[in-house]
Each structure stands twice: as C-alpha cells, then as structure tokens.
C-alpha cells in the first residue's frame, strides 16, 4: 500500500520541455509529485530541509537517504537564495523521473525519485566546482558526490501559480524507490 504524506497535498506538476536555446515550450505532459513554495531569505534552506525530511519520512525513505537528501537540498536552496534571490518564485519539487536523462553526471531513468529546487533565473548555467576556490563553490560537488552523479539542471517553468520561465536544479534521492507513482 502506497503511503502519502497526510499534511501534503499531491499535485500534478505540468512539466515543460526545453529546446536547445533554453526556451520553455508548452507543457508536455503530467509529472506526479509534490511542489511547495520556498520562502525568500536565509530561511529558504532550513524550510526546504524540513519539508523534504517530512515528505521522505512519510513515504518510507531510509533514514540515511533522508539525511543525504537534506544536505543536498540545503545546498541547492542556498544557491537559489544567494544567486537567484530576486528571481522568484522559488519552489521545491519531489517527483519520480519519467526516464529523461541527466544533464550532468550519469545514470538515472524511470522510477528514480528526484528532488529539485526551481528559481526564475533561467540564464544561469551550472558552474564548475573547485576544491581550491575558498569558502564558496563546493556545494554542487557535494550534490554530485551524494547523488552518485545523478543530478542536473533543466530549463523549465514554475509549477505554482502562473508559469514563470526558469530552471530547476535536481538530484536523485539515493536509496529511495519510486514511492510517488
């Protein structure tokens, strides 16, 4: 029997495809899952960690998968706040991948539980990372490592309210199975 979070409302999230120039097109189908608005400001990462923890726990994800997912979502929400803070809305998504290939890394596919943070700064690219770049720039390498290189970015549209063009940076939740379908 599939368990769903009692305090979360499942929503159908209209996914958008993107052409090579990054322009979002009309919705291409439905992606089952959940979406939450993230607050602006420095509390964005804390809120994302709490929401994701509760959602994954209620879906029966293993504790170690939840801990890794919380660290990864914290990095992505912090990046959204720091680099796209004025480019709202910011959203947190939890969904099962529909088989689309990762943009960065390898692996992935149908039945993979993914988490994404959306912001409306569509023109940004994923930066490279360096262990020698000082105090900043290591967050995406943490996401890369903890997700088993199953992460990426896609240009898409927001899912709450009117569609806004932007990007979603996502990662596969390690150890979680397709519990949202």
From TrEMBL:
SUPFAM superfamilies in the record: ATPase domain of HSP90 chaperone/DNA topoisomerase II/histidine kinase
Ranges for region Disordered: 1-27
Pfam families hit by this protein: HATPase_c_2 (PF13581)
Start-end of Polar residues biased regions: 1-14
Coiled coil: none
Residues covered by the Histidine kinase/HSP90-like ATPase domain: 45-147
Keyword Transferase among record annotations: yes
Molecular-function annotations in GO: protein serine/threonine kinase activity
Lineage of the organism: Bacteria, Bacillati, Actinomycetota, Actinomycetes, Streptosporangiales
Transmembrane residue ranges: none
Listed InterPro entries: Anti-sigma-factor_SerPK (IPR050267), HATPase_C_sf (IPR036890), HATPase_dom (IPR003594)
Name of the protein in its database record: Histidine kinase/HSP90-like ATPase domain-containing protein
């Amino acid at each position: 029997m599939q368990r769903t979070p009692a305090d979360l409302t499942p929503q159908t999230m209209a996914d958008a495809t993107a052409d090579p120039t990054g322009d979002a097109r009309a919705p291409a189908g439905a992606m089952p899952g959940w979406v939450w608005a993230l607050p602006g400001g420095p509390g964005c990462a804390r809120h994302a960690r709490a929401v994701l923890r509760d959602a994954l726990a209620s879906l029966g994800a293993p504790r170690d998968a939840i801990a890794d997912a919380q660290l990864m979502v914290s990095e992505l929400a912090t990046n959204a706040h720091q680099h796209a803070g004025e480019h709202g809305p910011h959203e947190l998504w939890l969904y099962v991948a529909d088989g689309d290939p990762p943009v960065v890394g390898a692996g992935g596919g149908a039945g993979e539980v993914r988490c994404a943070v959306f912001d409306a700064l569509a023109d940004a690219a994923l930066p490279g990372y360096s262990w020698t770049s000082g105090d900043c720039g290591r967050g995406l390498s943490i996401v890369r490592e903890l997700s088993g290189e199953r992460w990426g970015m896609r240009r898409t549209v927001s899912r709450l309210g009117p569609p806004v063009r932007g990007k979603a940076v996502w990662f596969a939740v390690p150890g979680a199975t397709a519990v949202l379908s």
